[in-house]
Amino acid sequence: MGSSASKASIGASVESTGSKFTMLDYPLDQENLVKVISHLDNMDYPIIALWIVARPINWKEKSMIEHWSVIIQGQGCLLLIDFLEHNNKGAFRIVARSGTDAEFEELFKWKPPQAQQQNDNEAIEGTKYRIVASVTPSPLIPSKKFYVDYIDDEEKKKIKKLYKQQKKVKNNSNDDLKENITNDDEIKCDKRVKDIGDFLSRWTELEAQNKKGGGGGSGDNDEQKDKDQASKPKPYNAITNNCQKFALHLFEDLIGKNYADKVKFAKGQIQSPMDAKK
Questions:
Q1: How many angstroms separate the CA atoms of 267 and 219, rounded?
Q2: What is the CA radius of gyration of the chain?
Q3: b/e per residue, 191-200, with b = 16+ CB within 10 A?
Q4: Per-residue model confidence (pLDDT) at position 64
Q5: Are strands 47-56 and 130-135 parallel, antiparallel or unpaired?
Q6: Which of 40, 119, 124, 145 is least crowded, fewest Cβ atoms below 10 Å from its Cβ?
Q7: Are 191 and 250 in contact (CB under 8 A)?
Q8: Ranges of the chain whose pLDDT falls below 50
Q9: Residue in 79, 111, 85, 82 with CA at minimum distance from that of residue 14
Q10: Cα separation of 51 and 251, whole Å?
């Protein structure tokens, strides 16, 4: 993919454990945001597959709380992006790869920070991310069969069901199978990797609270508060504005209009009660 797709990491992979929860706010790192958007602007590639992936929070396998990231496969690049707290600020982390088979497998595994710092002689095998939701070309197509190891539980159930149905049908030809799956050769996505930068700009804008309604307001003071609030970028907040909400919103922005069922499937797994109600 060239220099822009070489191994890159912007931000750090440290999470922290929003309204009445504003005491948990970490202000957005504006310098980090500018760097990430600039990095993405060089990635003018069509999106060919998309995932939400999860690992235990703070890298502890027994943890019930998950940290979510989004993995995007573009034509010629592979990208992981997430939102977290770093140095008391909200920041975006990007890991970019060129998308070779070895790098593909590597990016779908996570390692604790201490393991990442070990030399090759002490290398620790990574743990595969849990796939929350996936939108990929059909792994039933021979040239796309490697995707079968990178699909969510819902897709696995569909494929198993299809195989069972195929076994029950006698004299089923390859042409019949091909007719059923050719429409899944490519996903339906009109966004490009660089469009993620535009999403970040929109997503980090904090809308002013709407205080219209019954009387008793303070007039000009309320209006000024709204203006002040609107001028502040959206912070990181472990309760109201966290990694899971970011991943879900980015996933929905990129493919939601064509895969509403996938967005719903991912939303059903979100762990914040406040987010699950929205």
A1: 38
A2: 21
A3: bbbbbbbebb
A4: 86
A5: antiparallel
A6: 119
A7: no
A8: 1-19, 175, 177-183, 207-217, 230, 276
A9: 85
A10: 8
